Amino acid sequence: MKDSISKTKLFYVTQFFSSEVNSTEIRVGKIFGKNLTHNLKTRICPSFLSTFPKPQLDVPQDVPSVSDESKYKLSNPDAFDVKSMVRIKNLFEAGVHFGHTEGTLDDRMKQYLYGNRLGHLIIDLNHTKRLLQQALNVTAHISYRGGVILFLCQSPLNCLTVENCAKECGEFAHTRYWRDGMFTNSSRIFKSETRLPDLCIVLNTLSSTSKNNSGQHSVLSDAAKMLIPTIAIVDTDANPNIVTYPVPGNDDTPSAINLYCDLFKNVILKAKKVRKEILDKN
């Protein structure tokens, strides 16, 4: 008698749960559609474990997609394709590898040397290529975000080249004597509020008119005080530790200066062109 009662209870309990499951499947089926198994698998399984193809959304071509906007983020190491702009052959032909004599070597530049020949130091162009690409990438990102870039040079032989470079890419240049306090005390010197540059590109680090004992360009210390990043071409007799992005190379030869100016000018113009295209689309 007890066995029959327990079987009857078990029958009713089974019927109850089966009816609940059926009603749940009907409600879920109405929500997800007829392909219930596929929808449940895609919702339960993580995306990297699922073997089903992901649905593709139709995005109009004239509207910038999320991938286009994320392409130019700071996390992208080569958003503006600067790696293809720098070649060791061009650096060699421009004489970037030529350093000063052995007696003028700064010990902090030993890590960038390849060797010496006939008493003159030779700079390793592999280091120059890597650091120059990094400097160009930083310059492109700052220009892409509307930053102000200041070119500096106190070499009389290359002043005109640097001024023309800044003019052609729509930036600024300073090729004269650097007065102390032009960054730290700009409002008093210029008699008004002045916007400081977002990046300084120094094409010759040593200056014969500098009041510093080390002979370094005074803008390097002033920019460091105002937290302005600097890019500088450091020769074998310069100190690379006071520069945010040092680039070991020849800072005297006009052919080398022309190469630096062309690279920085092209990457600035490219970044501004990308910025204009995105703003026009939006």
Overview of the molecule:
By secondary structure, the chain is an alpha/beta fold. The protein is 43% helix and 12% strand. It contains nine helices and eight strands. It has helices at 2-32, 36-44, 66-70, 88-93, 125-144, 159-168, 186-189, 218-225, 254-281, and strands at residues 98-101, 113-117, 120-123, 149-152, 172-174, 199-202, 230-234, 245-248. The strands form two sheets. It has a five-stranded parallel β-sheet with strand order 5-4-6-7-8, with helices on both faces. α6 links the parallel β4 (149-152) and β5 (172-174). α6 (159-168) packs parallel to α9 (254-281). The longest helix has 31 residues, at 2-32. The radius of gyration is 32 Å and the shape is globular. Residues 7-14, 28-34, 36-57 and 59-66 have low confidence and may be disordered.
In terms of topology, how is this protein built?
Blueprint: H1 2-32, H2 36-44, H3 66-70, H4 88-93, E1 98-101, E2 113-117, E3 120-123, H5 125-144, E4 149-152, H6 159-168, E5 172-174, H7 186-189, E6 199-202, H8 218-225, E7 230-234, E8 245-248, H9 254-281
Parallel strand pairs: 4-5, 4-6, 6-7, 7-8
Antiparallel strand pairs: 1-3, 2-3
